Amino acid sequence: MPHHQKAHAMRALEEEIIAFNITPELAKQAHRLVIGDGNLDADIVFIGEAPGKKEDQQGLPFVGAAGKFLDLMLEEAGMVRADVYITNIVKYRPPNNRDPKPAEKEAFWPYLLKQLEIIRPKVVITLGRHSMGYFLPNAVIGEVHGQPQQVHFDTQALTVIPLYHPAAALYNGSLRQTLIDDFLAVPKLISKL
Length: 193
Description:
The protein contains 9 helices and 6 strands; from the N terminus they run ααββααβαβααββαα. It has helices at about 5-20, 25-30, 55-60, 65-75, 100-120, 130-135, 140-145, 165-170, 175-190; strands at about 35-40, 45-50, 85-90, 125, 150-155, 155-165. Strands 1-3-2-4-6-5 form a 6-stranded mixed β-sheet, with helices on both faces. The chain is globular.
């Protein structure tokens, strides 16, 4: 799909979420829908769980402390945000940054799959267990982090690399190094695909 068509499809997706009033309780209290940000022709799509306060204010994913850490890791791995696409399973900020509820994740899941259909990345990187759980329902993050997994959905075969969430690594020094090590291995893993 040419780039302008992808941009049009992504806008249509955003309008559909608003028109169908997906997760009305979340929509009511959030400032805006945070669909995602980055390169629609990206080889890598990062998926977190839900927007936080800063994301809700700016309408962009991963712009708070966890986002700064993500930027730092991208830089270390020789990438910039403009190379990748970043989104979350849930597109509205949950109140007080609580975890997204299963029903909220379920409501947004079809839209996430449509986003992946539009972008067609080589690799999906899940950040944290919430987004990993949908792609790899039986996986334990401590056992599979950093290891590529093959997943099949209706029309898509995806390579998923589960990573720890940058927010968790900010509060846990040992996780931080694990996440950085996993992250720096990603370009090599992709070049093998």
